[in-house]
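Supplementary Note 3. Input sequence used for the single-chain structure prediction.
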Amino acid sequence: MPLSDPRSLVFWCLAAFACGSIPFGLLLVKLAGKGDVRAHGSGNIGATNVSRVGGKALGIVTLLLDILKGFLPVFLAKKAGVSLDLLSLLALAAVLGHVFTPWLKFQGGKGVATALGVILAVDAQLMVLPMATFVFALWLTRHVSLGSILAAAMVPVQLFLAFSFFRMFGGTLQQDFRTLLPWVALVLLVIWKHRDNIRRLQEGTESKLWGAKQEDSHDAA
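The predicted structure, written as C-alpha cells, is reproduced below.
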C-alpha cells in the first residue's frame, strides 16, 4: 500500500492514533474500584503509577496493554502490506495517541511502553541497541528514566546503521529519509515527556530503581 495514497495514509494513521489513545491505566484502576489514577502519586496513567495505586499485578497488565495498543495497529498494517515509511508514521501516530489522548483532554502518558510496542511490530531487531543501552544505563546509574531516554534515542541510530551498512530494508535513500524522520520525532516526543525527569537528574533528586527510597512523584515511564 503506497504512501502516496492519501486515503490509506489517513485511515491507518487515524486507526493507530485511536488505538494508542485508549487509557488502559485509567480504565483498569477505575474498574478495580481504586478511583482515578490521576488523583494519586504522579498523576500519570502509565504502568508505574497504576502499580502504586492498584498494585503490581494491575501495573503489569497496564504495561502489557500499553505495549499491545502500539503493537497491534502497526502489526496489522504491516501484514496488510503497508510500506515501511508509512509504518513509521503509524508508529508515531500510535505514540501520539497515548501521549495526547483526546479522552483525557489530551493529557496522557509518557509513551515508553507504546513506543516499545510499535518498535516490536515494525521489526524486533530494532530493539537490540536500545535494549542494550537501557540495560547498561540502568546497571550503571539505577535510573529507569535515564535508561528510557537513552534507549529511545538509540532507535533512529539503529535504523540509520541498518540503512547505511546492512540495507536491512532495501529501500532508496529518499525512502530511508522518510522512514527515519517519524522515528526522530517519536524520540523527541518521548524525551520531551521526560523533561521533569531530566530536570531531577540534573538536580540529583531523581529516584533510583534500587538502593534508594522511591518517591511517588518520580515516574520514569
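Residues 6-203 form one domain. The two ends are 34 Å apart (CA to CA).
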